[in-house]
Amino acid sequence: MPMTEQASGSHHPQPRARSGGAQSATVEHVTGAQSLIRSLEEVGADTVFGIPGGAILPAYDPMMDSARVRHVLVRHEQGAGHAATGYAQATGRVGVCMATSGPGATNLVTPIADAHMDSVPMVAITGQVASKAIGTDAFQEADICGITMPITKHNFLVTKAEDIPRTIAEAFHIASTGRPGPVLVDIAKDALQAQTVFSWPPQLDLPGYRPVTKPHAKQIREAAKLITQAKRPVLYVGGGVLKAGATAELKVLAELTGAPVTTTLMALGAFPDSHPLHVGMPGMHGAVTAVTALQKADLIVALGARFDDRVTGKLDSFAPFAKIVHADIDPAEIGKNRAADVPIVGDAREVIADLVQAVQAEHTDGNAGDYSAWWRDLSRWRDTYPLGYDQPEDGSLSPQQVIQRIGQLAPEDTIYAAGVGQHQMWAAHFIGYERPATWLNSGGAGTMGYAVPAAMGAKAGMPDRTVWAIDGDGCFQMTNQELVTCALNGIPIKVAIINNGALGMVRQWQTLFYNQRYSNTVLHAGPGQETPPNKGTRVPDFVKLSEAMGCVALRCERPEDLDKVIAEANAINDRPVVVDFIVHEDAMVWPMVAAGTSNDEVMAARGVRPDFGDGEDD
To answer: How far is CA 25 from CA 197, 199, 203, 418, in A?
Structure first.
């Protein structure tokens, strides 16, 4: 498979992922399976999420003897993959998952695709049938390398035991450098069983894999000139800034220039939400000010972002007046969706650091941008169209209030993992993200069921931090079995089920675009029913279900009980806690740009399009 950088952002290699050369070698006579576990120890993997099965079983025996690699036995391979992703996003290290051949491996496809879309460093290790049986449709055989080729940064099929150490070292190096991403290592069963010599460190052999990290000085100077010449610049910050560990540099650049900052769904926490230069999240459900700032900008400085459709809306109408500076570790992203006037290939941390120096040089020469008129417009929009919500008239719980209060009452360094749908957008809007690696979500793939296993992985990697999973009742029913894993392995996450009895985001679209015909979106009742046969009963009863899985389970239905229930959940730290919040079913996510329409048509609320007045820069 050709080795290409498919990347937005950058991540620095783990210190243990060594490339050989100067160190004295460790040599041992072992089986291939023992070699695999020793290799994982040497690259610094401390946690593996997985399930054993026939083809991978040889690896599970030596794993029992490892003092450095902890295995977490999950209930479904999809949970293993999302847990590895949550671990990686929370810690910045490579996440590891393991599965057997055939269905074990194919159950990893969704989390691998998810990690690929969101540039998450992950290594998936799968067993494969014996090498002589490959291609014979043997029991539990699947060509997982072929299946995952489009959704991995690279993948390997290992049929010789002596290749295992080098392959593991290369997999971790590829996953964690350049644009991070998932790497799959498929190992034939006979390679795991064979006798071999384990030697470490191995010599890496990766011809053609040379991620460019240092930006071109001329491009940096051009970008700095455009920043100081612009009247309406915007710093458009993507997840690559987080992956590069560039948040400190970003803050310096923003404060030096005085330009507004918008952080995408994948970049929340890269720049403090409370900072006066922050204008919010852009996109389909972004803040009105952020969406409009991009539309009216005369310069967009994109840092580790990829101009995806959720941000741009109808692409040919996006930011029609803007020149584009696009910086990314992955050259394939630059110009893919929007032509760049100044393309910059490089690690976001190095790009931003160099931009700071170049802008300072421009200031020294007397060239500084005047954005005062721009900020008058931005401030007016921010004051006129703030994020907000209405309380239900029937006295029921508002889902936005539930999520907002969780954020306000949780400890300061809490990590939040969200599922996908309305609750994801509300969690993005109504929790304040002040620091990196506190917001985990499935952005590109939009994978329902992500939250619980990702929270589990985050808590396993950061055991001293509080971890809240903000989930919907639809998402929760896809992967809630991993609460058993949490309970049995001492991983005390907290789960908020935002329970509106429906697939909320789909229901919102049916309300707006399908004449309120709610086809197959009611979750707690049978076909044709708006309520369950036994009125007042929800199926399943999440409290009973969670208790059966070894969790403390609570329910909250009244606004007056909200703070007390959240405080009770925060006080329990020895077991997983699940809170079933019964919320109003008709709440909607606003603002909204309807799919396929221009960002100029952003709606601040249902049917309400903002009036941006006649300011001098409108």
So the answer is: 12, 6, 11, 44
Active site residue 170: no
When computed from its CA atoms, the radius of gyration of the chain, rounded to whole angstroms, is 25
Q: Is 156 a catalytic residue?
A: no
Which residue among the candidates 5, 49, 98, 189 is catalytic per the annotation?
Answer: 189
**Of 71, 82, 143, which is closest to residue 112 (Cα–Cα)?**
82
Q: What is the pLDDT of residue 617?
A: 44
What pTM does this model have? 0.94
309 exposed, middle or buried (CB, 10 Å; 0-12, 13-18, 19+)? middle
Q: Strands, E, within 35-114: which ranges? A: 47-50, 70-73, 95-99
- The correct answer on CATH 3.40.50.2000 for the domain covering 399-582 is no
**76-118 confidence digits (pLDDT tens):** 999 999 999 999 999 999 999 999 999 999 999 999 999 999 9
Q: Is it true that the peptide bond before 182 is cis, omega within 30 degrees of 0?
A: no
Distance of CA 124 to the CA centre of its chain: 17
Assigned architecture for domain 217-384: 3-Layer(aba) Sandwich (3.40)
Query: Interior CA angle at 115 toward 487 and 251, to 5°?
Result: 100
Known catalytic membership, residue 214: no
The residue ranges of DSSP E strands in 12-165, in sequence order, are 26-31, 47-50, 70-73, 95-99, 122-128, 154-158
Say which residue the tokens 């999950």 belong to: 74
Q: Which CATH number fits domain 26-200: 3.40.50.1370, 3.40.30.10, 3.40.50.970, 3.30.70.20?
A: 3.40.50.970
Respond yes or no: is residue 251 known to be catalytic.
no
Three-state DSSP class for residue 75: coil
- Catalytic member of 140, 193, 357, 477: 140
Please confirm, yes or no, whether 505 is among the known catalytic residues.
Answer: yes
Distance CA 529, CA 520 (A): 10
- What is the per-residue DSSP string for 217-251? HHHHHHHHHHHHH-SSEEEEE-HHHHHTT-HHHHH
What are φ and ψ of residue 375, in 5° steps? -70, -30
Q: Which of 478, 505, 588, 592 is catalytic?
A: 505
Q: CB within 8 A of 585, min separation 6: which ones?
A: 500, 501, 502, 504, 507
Catalytic member of 14, 49, 63, 77: 77
| From 1, 139, 214, 513, the catalytic residue | 139
Is pLDDT above 50 for 327? yes
CA 356 – CA 454 distance, rounded (Å): 35
186, 140 contact by CB (below 8 A): no
pLDDT band at 609 (very low <50, low <70, confident <90, very high): confident
